[in-house]
Specification:
The protein is of the alpha+beta class and about 350 residues long. Among the domains are: about 80 residues, no CATH class; about 120 residues, Band 7 domain (Tetrahydropterin Synthase, Chain A, 2-Layer Sandwich); about 45 residues, no CATH class. About 50% of the residues lie in helices and about 20% in strands. The strands form 4 sheets. Strands 6, 9, 10 and 11 form a 4-stranded antiparallel sheet that branches.
């Protein structure tokens, strides 16, 4: 394991951290000065002012205690290594270890870390901050067999320092590989149009959950805070063609919407007309049936009267029928047996019409 840096500017040492001090300065502690001051204080405390070897032993004990003491802040975690083996983890607060047999590794666990997939950012004094594309990471295959260029960041932090340091050989590289694999899986389950338009938020959430599940299986000791898609678009070489396809798909959708609107207008109108025709047919049927039933009832009533008095009924039917037939005719029938004194023909109907016209 690398030597621990206590974060105060002191040089790392292979035995862990001494107590943290608020002052600056990168110089190591002056142990001779500490021993001399300790001896002076012990001499003053002992009768006769003489301590001899006892003073040296006491000073060495104090020095060892000082050497083995370390402080873990509230935003940190620590692991204790004994001959390079992880034997314990330390929560925030004061702790003690046994140097030089044990070492202490302290890391901040609330700091956010970020890994970028599909691009790299470099900084230099001459060119400043620049971003470089990584097509080998960003080009991915969609469900509809298109290529999409996806660049994204994964923000994470440590939640278990021991697992983070010792469960994985290369924690940062593992997080990057898992993130790229998860994004490729989600992209392969979606079509290109929603990927670059409306489905980015859903994809980010799904990728975050998949990365977290995979890292938990590895016992990586990491919490994935968020996944941020920086850019998702068609590759530069086919961007113009893809835009043409998008416009065609938009026109197709517009035509479909117009056809649906027309269908929604025509179908109810046709259904109304069909219902009206059905109702008219039902009314006509009811009218015809009622008329037929009436005719049948009248016929049956006449027939019943005919059965009771055949001669009278025949004569009445004959007279009624002749009345209906001759009612609209302009002829006058004169009985030939009436004698020679009767006027054979008198157009009474024409006279009536003429007198009425005058």
């Amino acid at each position: 394991m690398p030597w621990q840096n206590n974060g105060d500017g002191d040089r790392p040492n292979p035995w862990g951290n001494g107590p943290r001090r608020g002052g600056g300065g990168g110089e190591p502690p002056n142990f001779d000065e500490y021993i001399r001051k300790g001896q002076d204080q012990l001499r003053k405390a002992m009768p006769g002012g003489k301590g001899g070897p006892l003073l040296i032993v006491a000073a060495l004990i104090l020095l060892y205690l000082y050497w083995g003491f370390y402080q873990v802040k509230t935003n940190e975690q620590a692991v204790v290594l004994r001959f390079g083996e992880w034997v314990a983890s330390s929560s925030p607060g004061p702790h003690f270890h046994f140097p030089p047999f044990e070492q202490v590794e302290i890391r901040g666990v609330t700091d956010e870390n970020q890994v970028s997939i599909g691009s790299r950012v470099t900084e230099s004094r001459r060119s400043g901050r620049q971003s470089f594309a990584r097509p080998d990471e960003s080009l991915m295959l969609t469900q509809d067999e298109n290529i999409v260029d996806v660049r994204f960041n994964v923000v994470w932090r440590i939640n278990d320092l021991g697992n983070y340091l010792f469960k994985l050989q290369d924690p940062d590289g593992t997080i990057k590989s898992v993130a790229e694999s998860a994004m490729r899986e989600m992209i392969g389950q979606n079509r290109i149009t929603p990927i670059i338009t409306t489905a980015r938020g859903q994809i980010e959430q799904s990728v975050k959950e998949l990365i977290q599940t995979t890292l938990d299986e590895y016992q990586a000791g990491v919490d994935v805070l968020r996944v941020q898609i920086i850019e998702s678009e068609a590759p530069e070489e086919v961007k113009d063609a893809f835009l043409d396809v998008q416009r065609a798909e938009a026109d197709q959708q517009r035509f479909q919407n117009e056809a649906t609107k027309y269908r929604n207008e025509v179908i109810p109108q046709a259904q109304g007309q069909a219902e009206q025709m059905t109702q008219q047919a039902e009314a006509y049927r009811a009218q015809v049936v009622a008329r037929a039933q009436g005719e049948a009832a009248r016929f049956m009533s006449v027939y019943n009267e005919y059965i009771l008095a055949k001669d009278v009924t025949k004569k009445r039917i004959y007279l009624e029928t002749m009345e209906q037939i001759l009612a609209g005719m302009d002829k006058i029938v004169v009985d030939g047996k009436a004698g020679s004194g009767v006027v054979p023909y008198l157009p009474l109907e024409q006279l009536n019409k003429k007198s009425g016209g005058e």
